[in-house]
Design goal:
Number of helices: 17
Low-confidence stretches: 1-46, 260-275
Helix content: 25-40%
Largest sheet: 3 strands, antiparallel
Radius of gyration: 25 Å
Strand content: 5-15%
Strand order of the largest sheet: 3-4-5
Mean pLDDT: 77
Structural class: mainly alpha
Shape: globular
Oligomer: single chain
């Protein structure tokens, strides 16, 4: 199950609660929400405990699971699936394929995907983060501000291309059926025949793709089938378990060498880790995570909710993949809409400046779609936005729609720094915590958080070295660096900062 499905569960199935024990919460919830602009549910700020005072940033909060949690309703952990069986067969398929097939698959830059997915998921952890995802901003709302999955993160975690043309256009049922029949090498009547069943409940059976396309076909067809199955078992997973969506085959209808890839950034939270493994610098970061089974219980989920409510900005590794994210992955600075077929989502990096190495300021207003519809029972959340507009914006990058950092301050001292006005603004416009009565965050993370403290010391040291090098370069012609006021001031400030960090 992908995070896109997890998020969809969150915003489409928020009435699926184990709340029979307290139906009064449900009645109060329904009575106080009302329809707002574009079909979103909003409410009087004074009647939404734990919600935003100003609903201009997350206008659909009253239709969100977080508002239920504050009232005491709990839907428990989400239902998640992995495709470890199919992924194991995909790895075997690739390793026994001919050289010609491997060359075609490698050309897509997706051949590593079956090797970096995991057999086990930390479902309570995923559930806890899904409860903090707000579709209005496409970000996680944490106690200290927003965070999201940037295109820079996607590249470093998955090592899949994030450039190229957006995938648009929606094939009709007849087109998909015809192409599935062609790749599977079967007769039209065999696709849904009871004796040779290859299609069930809107999906093509995984075993049929493997059985009919693994070896013995032309190299091009075999490579297409392998990519088709890989996409359906990694990036575009549904809840079916034993089948995949036919639509993913459309990405390779012109052959694997002509395929272009782009993606919706919110899909890739579905990675679970317990310890780090040593990997080469060119490998996807997901390869360094060692996944193990974890307790899938409501008790652990509730503990994680409380822990996240106490999380501080100082405990976050804001630049996990090195400094200057935009310099290494330029599309990280794209500011606009991202589309995949008829799905259109906003991408707003100015809301997460700390993840890009800058001090967080009050962000500009959110992107407003043409319309957003949520039914009376919160079963479906549908965004209405022009795919053409998204494609035009993406195509114009970087000439246009590139976030300018000239007005922002680089976070030299503390990577998670923010403008003094930001937190006050955030408290009014968001829901920093999902549980009532949680203690305020600690002033510092625990001493055992080695990653945080080493990152802070390294950041301070790098800043000091850079400043000293700059000062020395300016006075190099004098060949005498004693008595330089700027150098003495920098060393004094560095000493004070080091003492402050060591004391903390």
């Amino acid at each position: 199950m992908s995070v896109d499905d997890l998020i969809t569960d969150d915003i489409r199935d928020t009435d699926n609660f184990d709340s029979s024990e307290d139906e009064s919460c449900e009645k109060i919830y329904i009575s106080r929400r009302k329809k707002g602009p574009g079909g979103r549910f909003v409410g009087d700020s004074s009647s939404v405990p734990g919600g935003p005072e100003d609903d201009t940033v997350i206008p659909s909060f009253l239709g969100h699971v977080a508002s239920r949690l504050w009232d005491g309703a709990d839907r428990g952990v989400l239902k998640c699936q992995t495709r470890h069986g199919a992924l194991r067969k995909l790895r075997q398929w690739y390793e026994t394929a001919s050289k010609e097939v491997k060359v075609l698959i490698d050309g897509t830059e997706l051949s590593h995907l079956p090797y970096i997915m995991f057999d086990h998921l930390d479902i309570p952890l995923l559930s806890a983060f899904v409860e903090r995802w707000q579709p209005d901003t496409n970000s996680f709302h944490m106690p200290f501000g927003e965070m999201t999955i940037t295109l820079h993160d996607v590249w470093h975690i998955l090592h899949i291309p994030i450039g190229g043309a957006m995938i648009s256009g929606q094939p009709n049922k007849a087109q998909l059926q015809a192409y599935c029949i062609q790749i599977l090498g079967i007769l039209p009547e065999d696709l849904v025949s009871k004796t040779t069943k290859h299609f069930s409940q809107g999906g093509v059976l995984i075993e049929s793709i493997i059985g009919l396309c693994m070896h013995g076909r032309t190299a091009e067809v075999e490579a297409i089938a392998w990519i088709w199955l890989t996409l359906g078992c990694t990036l575009f997973i549904d809840k079916s378990g034993h089948r995949i969506r036919p639509a993913t085959i459309w990405e390779v209808r012109d052959g694997v060498t002509d395929a272009t890839w782009n993606l919706i950034e919110r899909r890739f939270l579905g990675f679970d880790w317990r310890e780090r493994l040593l990997i080469e610098s060119h490998q996807p970061r997901a390869s360094s995570w060692s996944a193990t089974a974890s307790e899938c219980s409501g008790i652990r989920l509730r503990a994680l909710r409380a822990r996240l409510d106490q999380l501080t900005a100082e405990e976050i590794m804001w630049l996990s993949f090195g400094g200057e994210p935009v310099a290494s992955v330029e599309h990280t600075a794209y500011y606009g809409w991202i589309a995949y077929r008829d799905i259109v989502e906003p991408y707003m990096p100015s809301r997460v400046l700390r993840q890009l190495g800058y001090v967080q300021t009050v962000p500009v207003p959110i992107f407003r779609p043409i319309g957003v519809v949520r039914s009376g029972k919160s079963i479906k959340y549908s965004v209405d936005m022009s795919v053409t507009i998204a494609i035009d914006m993406w195509t114009a990058f970087p000439t246009m729609y590139k976030l300018s950092f000239m007005g922002f301050e680089e976070a030299h001292i503390i990577a998670g720094g923010c403008h003094p006005a930001y937190l006050d603004w955030y408290e009014r416009h968001s829901h920093p915590r999902v549980l009532p009565g949680v203690d305020l965050p600690r002033s510092h993370p625990p001493r055992s958080n080695n990653d945080y403290w080493m990152m802070l010391l390294t950041t301070e040291f790098e800043h000091f070295i850079g400043a000293v090098s700059s000062i020395i370069a300016q006075h190099r012609q004098h060949c005498d660096f004693e008595g330089i006021p700027e150098l003495e001031q920098e060393m004094e400030e560095a000493s004070t900062t080091l003492e402050r960090v060591m004391a903390a």
